[in-house]
Amino acid sequence: MRKSKPKKRIILPDPKYNEVLVTKFVNNIMLEGKKNLSYKIFYEAIDIVSEKTKEDGLEMWKKALANVTPSVEVRSRRIGGATFQIPSEIRPGRKMSIGMKSLVNFARKRHEKTMGQKLANEIIAASKEEGTAFKKKEDTHRMAEANKAFSHFRF
Fold it and tell me: For the whole model, what pTM was predicted?
């Protein structure tokens, strides 16, 4: 166990929308410390989303993020020689982190030309409750539901 908890870092809001959540998402997009480039990718994706759907791009993104954020997960635990998948609630900070990471990772695996287009299409799909990021959340919930019998082993 740690002696003391590490201090929470203060994350500054993004320049365009003035939201901390956007900065956190941009930090997940970022590779090799290229934050400016990841901001460009995000803003391009939001513009494409608002262009395609004729709605507010940021609201669509928030809706998509809420749709891909899981509320339960399964954790492996060894009990008496057998390994059980035990469903457990996720704390709020981790929930958002998992949602953001899945949205970015599944956007990267898409087959569009630029990252902005990939991210935009994944956001549109997730806001309609489809796409691979949403499917992953559904699979996680289904697995937790299937292993509900082992929830009394929770730690």
Answer: 0.87
